[in-house]
User: Which sequence fits this backbone?
């Protein structure tokens, strides 16, 4: 029986592991194959401590190297089920099964993509999945944001800071929030351009555009957590002030609990949850 | 008149600058000569994203390079006064004077040192200023903690996690908190050893020791803030949930507002305060 298994080795999981190891515990960290991190090729400029911009996947690799160098046990595998056992949790990966008194969910969120011609081509060349991350590079440009709900509204708020020309495209969905920007509800059927994106194409017309931000709902890898009966609001796992879910001994941190989807926030979560997990195990 | 001047370019100040620049503002950052960072030679292992341990002063240099590379104006000088002007704040360095609508205090805390023979020699070789940072390296060792108040009590709590042999030395002061560890109130007159520390010497005896942690009160560089009438509790500037002090337009973040004295926390503060400063300026 392990004391603590951490699922996910991004910023939140790795930081929690560093602090827990320092507290004298021996965390086991399980993370997905880094080769699968194709979606993390965005450049990170706003995480403190790197004079030059760093590609997301390289930062994650650096974090994994960091915890390995610190003597923390790391397993690269996919968790396929998480169940409550008699005295703790049973974590099954594709190859092994572990038992642990506590579990930290730090899997991050998988960002949604669009299966529309041109999406892959212009991803990173005019199409972005994060307004807070990339909006700055499109200031005073002609922008589109694709989405219809609260997540879109939140990203739009930031885009409105950097440009006065932002159009909302709901991609065939009904608008589920209030916005003051122009709204087009037609379905998107393509993105056009040469090196960079120049037009967004809907069923009914073409729109000249400098940048497109996708904010279609941020589906998360919380399926097995939901199966356990964890309370989920929107796409976020609900935790208390100790980062504990409604299930005793099951903690969550990082993007998966919502708030700012920023590395600085995930790292802070990781540090804080290490403290509460340590205290939980001590008082048990 | 500038919109925002940030005093201090450690983790909190630099991160706030990155985010404010992204929000379309042009922060001016004023920080001390990096040559003066002698006290930052401790190795940082628990800040996410660095596979190898990094020396504190190098991390700060990396952060300064990062904000300069991002096009942020950085001035290396010491702030000697901060006053309220008719429409904002007047910031004077040794060479220049600036006016700004808002100010962010992110100067960190100057860690106290001891003017005792052997202190400098064994600093980093058995003498540490941060239990949370270095305690792990002294697990199951014979430890001393020097201090008498709440800060010592807080650091002691962590040391008790890693060792069952921690003695409190109040260095001639009266103990101002409850501890269960052995307490020695005699004045410390020296530290002895060869390569590493081996003994702590008081007026009345010698004590074999593997590590000494100094926690004598963390005096902070908040003198000019106090002069402005900023509310200070203990050694921390008091801020509200928006990181604003009791003086409108004057914000503070990082070690100087208390909480965990960790880089991850300071970086998180910097990200959060950038948001509230942006909102403050927009609504003004």
Assistant:
């Amino acid at each position: 029986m392990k004391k603590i298994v951490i699922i996910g080795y991004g910023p939140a999981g790795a930081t929690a592991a560093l602090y827990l190891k320092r507290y004298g515990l021996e965390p086991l960290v399980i993370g997905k194959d880094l080769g699968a991190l194709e979606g993390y090729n965005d450049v990170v400029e706003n995480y403190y401590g790197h004079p030059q911009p760093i590609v997301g996947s390289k930062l994650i690799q650096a974090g994994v190297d960091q915890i390995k160098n610190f003597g923390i046990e790391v397993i690269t595998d996919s968790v396929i089920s998480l169940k409550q056992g008699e005295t703790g949790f049973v974590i099954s990966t594709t190859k092994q099964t572990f038992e642990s008194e506590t579990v930290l969910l730090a899997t991050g969120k998988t960002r949604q993509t669009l299966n529309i011609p041109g999406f892959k081509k212009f991803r990173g060349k005019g199409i972005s999945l994060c307004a807070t991350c990339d909006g700055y590079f499109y200031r005073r440009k002609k922008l589109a944001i694709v989405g219809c709900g609260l997540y879109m509204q939140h990203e739009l708020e930031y885009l409105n800071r950097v440009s006065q020309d932002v159009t909302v495209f709901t991609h065939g969905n009904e608008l589920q929030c209030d916005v003051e920007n122009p709204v087009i509800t037609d379905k998107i059927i393509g993105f056009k351009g040469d090196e960079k994106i120049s037009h967004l194409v809907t069923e009914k017309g073409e729109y000249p555009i400098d940048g497109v931000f996708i904010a279609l709902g941020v589906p998360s890898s919380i399926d097995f957590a939901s199966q356990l009966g964890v309370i989920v609001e929107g796409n976020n796992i609900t935790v208390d002030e100790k980062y504990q879910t409604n299930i005793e001994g099951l903690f969550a941190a990082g993007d998966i609990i919502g708030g700012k989807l920023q590395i600085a926030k995930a790292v802070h979560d990781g540090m804080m949850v290490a403290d509460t997990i340590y205290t939980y195990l001590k008082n048990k």
